Each structure stands twice: as structure tokens, then as C-alpha cells.
């Protein structure tokens, strides 16, 4: 009787945890491909950052040039 009460109380939580564990197993299967993708994205972010910095420097230059005229 006591076991049945424990199963009723915690059965759904155990089932959800088991399902989540089974679903996440595939997400960690290919770690090397994930690391490669993250490294590639890091290079893209760096390029975009430098481009934005360049645009800001050019905009500041035009502002100062316009003020001088």
C-alpha cells in the first residue's frame, strides 16, 4: 500500500524526468560539431563588430568635417 502511494505521488515527476533525459541525449551526441559551429559564429561576430566600429568612426569623421565647413 505504501509503495502505491509513493508511485501515485512521484510517478508523473519520474516519468517527466526520464522523458527529458531521453530527449536531451541526442543534443549532446555531437560535441565536436557544436564546438566548430560556435567557433565559426565567434569569427562572424568579431567581423560584424569591427564593421560597426568602422561605421561609427566614419560617421564621427563626417560629423567633424561638416562642423568645420
Number of helices: 2
Q: Tell me the distance between the termini.
A: 91 Å
The poorly predicted ranges are: none
Average residue pLDDT: 76
Shape: elongated
Question: Could you tell me the number of beta strands?
Answer: 0
Helical/strand content category:
mainly alpha
Largest sheet: none
Rounded to the nearest angstrom, the radius of gyration is 28 Å
Number of domains: 1
- Helical content (DSSP H or I, runs of 4+): over 70%
- Percent in strands: under 5%
Describe the structure.
The model has no long low-confidence stretch (mean pLDDT 76). This protein has one domain. The chain is 88% helix and 0% strand. By secondary structure, the chain is mainly α. The protein is built from two helices and no strands. The longest helix has 38 residues. Pfam families: Phage_Coat_B (PF05356). InterPro entries: G8P (IPR008020). This is Bacteriophage coat protein B.
Amino acid at each position: 500500500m505504501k509503495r502505491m502511494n509513493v508511485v501515485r505521488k512521484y510517478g508523473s515527476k519520474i516519468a517527466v524526468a526520464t522523458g527529458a533525459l531521453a530527449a536531451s541525449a541526442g543534443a549532446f551526441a555531437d560535441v565536436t560539431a557544436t564546438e566548430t559551429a560556435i567557433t565559426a559564429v565567434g569569427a562572424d561576430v568579431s567581423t560584424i563588430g569591427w564593421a560597426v566600429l568602422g561605421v561609427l568612426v566614419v560617421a564621427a569623421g563626417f560629423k567633424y568635417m561638416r562642423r568645420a565647413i
